[in-house]
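Hi again,

Forgot to attach this to my earlier email, sorry! This is the prediction with guanosine-5'-diphosphate bound. I've pasted everything inline since the attachment limit keeps bouncing my files.
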Amino acid sequence: SQRLFGGFRKTSERLSSNLTGVVGTAKLDDATLDDVEDALIMSDLGPSAAARIRGKLAEKRFGLEITMDELRLAMAEEIAEILRPVAKPLDIVAFPRPQVILVIGVNGSGKTTTIAKLAHLFQEDDYGVMLAAGDTFRAAAIGQLQTWADRIGVPLIRGAEGGDPASVVFDAVKEATATGIDALVVDTAGRLQNKRELMDELSKIRKVLGRLNPEAPHDVVLVLDATNGQNALAQIDVFREVAGVTGLVMTKLDGTARGGVLVQAAEQYGLPIHAIGVGEKIDDLRPFDPDLVARVIA
Ligand code: GDP
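Structure tokens for the complex follow:
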């Protein structure tokens, strides 16, 4: 698990350095609690989660002696409390099949890689998986998805470059239904520069999907790059409005000290967190284990 969440190493180091000098007094008093709260905010957990954790610490321990180790254990417990309610794996439950999973996010967030990683996780559970290249505007995106599809051995439905994403999705659902696919994972355009256009495109995809299966899309998974810190959170607001997000995957938790945004996202939005990306390789998508993550962060 150390290697697993080597990912959060820098986040944890940032919190440690922000906590330096906090426990000057042996007893947990207001000044110490202020310092703890500041350290949490500086570590990207956000004012609201920081206040909540402070409140819980005060409620349980105010005036009691506390060592740094005890303080960190207590913080880990409160962080876990925030994370537990949102930890939800992306289960394949749709009936009839296929379960249609739209994957959205800005370009560069790790969307394509995450799609391949998700497909790989489903394969490991013996589900039949198909991909659809719904981002028809970037030839590179289609090519990259094809490379992943070939590498892991799943079919990819793609249209002409510049073609209609909704018609690619239509073809994919028909093909997936005909071939008994369990999970259809759909890449979509990540152009937030033009919100209107993206919104139109996604609603057209929804309309087409709805005609084939009123339940589809079953999931709308937003991929967020943790290295974007507060900006990643701002994207939740926009994509919720544009796309009706049902869950999150946060990527690049390996190279960043800003992993605290994961806690902030959980506290502020309460959206399910399905998995986390901790590297570039196919098996670097981990199930979201709230207790483990909390322990590693704190
Ligand atoms: P897209 O433009 O959103 O489809 O992004 P890509 O999937 O192409 O990813 C952009 C870059 O981020 C690539 O170099 C990926 O290898 C890298 N990447 C994706 N997820 C992770 C992750 O969890 N950790 C790290 N370190 N890199 C990642």
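DSSP finds eleven helices and eight strands in the chain. The chain has a mean pLDDT of 94.

That should be everything now.

G.
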